[in-house]
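I am still learning, so can you show me any protein sequence you like together with the matching C-alpha cells, please?
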Amino acid sequence: MIYIEKNDLKLSDKIIKFTKNGIEKERYIGPEGVSWWNELESKHDNTEIIEIADVSYTQEELERYEEVKNITTSFDEVKEYVKTGDISVFESTDDEKVRNFLATKENKLLQEELKSTQQALDFMIMNRGV
C-alpha cells in the first residue's frame, strides 16, 4: 500500500498476485517496479505471476494519506492509519511529527464537536418559544 522512496512516502499504484512454490501471494508493488517482478519470474521456476492490477483507494484512504505522508519515522503506524483511520495506532510512538499530527487531528475533532454543539444550542434557542 505505502512504500518509502527517497525518504518520501508513496502510495503503490499496482498490486501483484503470484504463486511461489505453489502458494498464492499478493504484494503491493513499490519502488522495485513491475519489471523487477517480471525478471524474478523469468529467473525462478517456482514463481509465477498470476496478475498485475491497478490499485484503487477510497477517498478516505487518500485523505488520510495526505494527512500523514510526511511521517516517515512511524512507517508501520502510518500504513495502518491510512488503511483503517484508527489514530490509536500512534499511541506508542513518540515522534514530533506524529505528536503534531495528533494535536492537529484532535483540534479538528474538537472544532467539529464545538460547531455541532453550537448548532444544537442555536436550534434550541430559536425554538424556545414554540
User: Anything to note?
Assistant: The chain has four helices and five strands.
